Amino acid sequence: MEVRKPAILVPFSPADTGQACRDVFVYLRPESNGMEVESLIMKAMQVEKLKNNVSLAYLANIPGDFISTKGLIEHHYRIRLLFAVKGKQLFTKHMKKAFKSYFRCSFEKADILGPYEAMKRLNIDEEALFKTWVDPSDMMNVNGQSIKKIQNLYVLNYDIPAILNKNNINTDIAVMIFRCCRKDYDIHFMVDAIENQLKEKGIVNPLSPSSRIFHYSKGPFEELLDSSGFLYSRELENIPLDQVAFGRFLISRGVSLEQINGAIYHPIMYFKEPDGRYTENDIYSYTRDNSYEEAFEGFERVFLQRILQ
Which H or E element spans position 258? Predict the structure, then answer.
């Protein structure tokens, strides 16, 4: 059976180099009502503070079989998938210390395992594991990896099996890029406008939070990660990261395309802070909610990267 091709409805074009523009990637989760949610997102862009400041820079429908064939979901969640499969053996000294401090138990003795092993031990499927409610104090995130304590088990990246299962050959994804060229623009206003539209229709509710309906780039480096998997030309070629807004910004500051791609592929890094402290984090969490300038300054603090294969 022939693999369906993406429909590029609004082709991407880089912003004018003379403008300080920011691009925000938005795509719909598989469990959302695609057509209705897409319509409501477009409606949200018409609120007073957005309609004259935000433009649609890219719109595409990516078929599920194309996504599966290209391994786009596995690419997007590469590091989280590695931890889900290899478990505690990938923990750094910082991660071990953070785990011990948060859960107040021995890292060596703790039953830390990936979600696939947890499903066997708990005798549940991926959806039940995903929906298992625990007290917020039994959840932690370190270096971009989530840990959920269920009974006496510490489950790494519990959501990965459900994510992979929901993104199948029959699941198409609508992908958008919204562009704003105002320096004082706060992307959270756009996200709030989208959430308000979805709440009015009952799509977002306590049992179905917005994070399960749509995804958006929460920081400049996440914009690059999103673009690396879901941004295509009409000829269905991947658009290089030096063409997207933050990629062009980094290039203008002397960062090479090789360094940009390396940051996306190996996001766990060590930073030397302005006060002389050394910290460890993943670049996405470290630069979350940053401006382009702030994210670049954070990237300049990197002195070492953790290489995971």
Answer: helix 257-265
**Rounded to 5 degrees, what are φ and ψ at 7?**
-100, 110
The CA dihedral of 219, 33, 165, 75, to the nearest 10 degrees, is -30
Report how far residue 216's alpha carbon sits from residue 29's, in angstroms, rounded to the nearest whole number. 10
Does residue 74 fall inside a structural domain?
Answer: no
CA distance 280 to 80: 16
Contact at 8 Å (CB) between 69 and 1? no
- Residue 219 DSSP class: S
Both tokens of 181, joined, read 């060229």
| Structure tokens belonging to residue 156 | 């790494």
Counted domains in the chain: 3
Q: Could you tell me the residue range of the domain that residue 298 belongs to?
A: 249-305
Closest C-alpha among 86, 91, 87, 89 to residue 102: 91
Backbone region of residue 151 per phi and psi (left: phi > 0; alpha: psi in -120 to 50; beta: other values): left
pTM for this model (two decimals):
0.92
- For residues 155 and 85, state if they share a domain: yes
Instruction: Report which of 247, 252, 274 is spatially closest to residue 262, judged by C-alpha positions.
Output: 247
Distance CA 204, CA 28 (A): 13
pLDDT tens digits for range 111-165: 999 999 999 999 999 999 999 999 999 999 999 999 999 999 999 999 999 999 9
